[in-house]
Amino acid sequence: MKAFEIQEFGIDKLALVDRDKPVPGPGQALLRMLAASLNYRDYMMVCGTYNPRLKRPLVPLSDGVGIVEEIGVGVTRVKKGDRVAACFFQKWIEGPPTREKNNSALGGAIDGVAREYAVFSEEGLVQAPASLSDEEVAALPCAAVTAWHALFGHVGTVPGNTVLLQGTGGVSIFALQFAVLAGLRTIITSSSDEKLAHAKKLGAHETINYKTDPKWDEAARKLTGGEGVDHVIEVGGSDTLARSMKALRMHGAISVIGVLGGADAAITPTSVLVSSARIQGIFVGSRNMFEQMNRAIAFHNVKPVIDQTFEWTYLKEALRHMESARHFGKICLKF
What we know:
Layout: E1 2-5, E2 15-18, E3 28-37, H1 40-47, E4 63-71, E5 83-86, H2 99-102, E6 117-121, E7 125-127, H3 134-138, H4 140-152, E8 162-165, H5 170-181, E9 185-190, H6 193-201, E10 206-209, H7 216-223, E11 229-234, H8 241-247, E12 248-256, H9 269-275, E13 278-281, H10 287-300, E14 306-311, H11 315-324, E15 330-334
Parallel strand pairs: 8-9, 8-11, 9-10, 11-12, 12-13, 14-15
Antiparallel strand pairs: 1-2, 3-4, 3-6, 3-15, 4-5, 5-7
Helix pairs in contact: 4-5, 7-8
């Protein structure tokens, strides 16, 4: 079978290799992959900026969907012919995260989905929503579960509360869609008026272009009558965290999801103390969260936003498209 490997860092150095077709052992299922999607983490992993000490060779990409072709002894959660998605963390079933659970991340700690066939533990698989295409299902495991966890996993989400969404990447767009379902007021930022117009069509109540209005924290406070927002989906890191604190109301919450703008210290303990802010790191989520989210997606007929789909062997071109930052929604691969 064909598979991509990170042998050396760099998009152009991705290697398309031949590997033996895997065989499922007890408690495992063999999947023929149907589709995959890209996350910014995948781009960083390939370029070597996510983990310069990454063990190689490694099959990249965390998000994918496939058909069960064969099952091992004792498997009961899935059967031959099922269309299933692989969980980002193969061992995070429920409860809080642990180091052991974190060490089961696809496309990082262990081989990912950029291959024609893959074996997974049955515990690390969920049934795909029947209402979604293969590409739409492939968009879910990382970005969508992260957004779901951020909105509903640790914050007392109440209809009418205001959530500030940074940018129009995969997590932020899923968070926008889920926030609309939950009856939240949404404010979203971007440097592109075109992308903000797309966000409006998805239900965003207010938009802020941070390129033309760099004091977006003050703009967000004005939109809330000076009180500040209830919740910030923070993806920027050190470049944005201080402004997120200023945009937040007293005792508001910040879900820290990404460090796209850097990881240097950006806020002081005093600023957290005087504002009674609640700051929570969000690193994807559990299988239980994935299944809860899928029920909501099926009931409300949520459709993931797909920007563009490439043939899976054009992974390098798909990563270049991500690098350009022109996309709105998920970049997918079709097997």
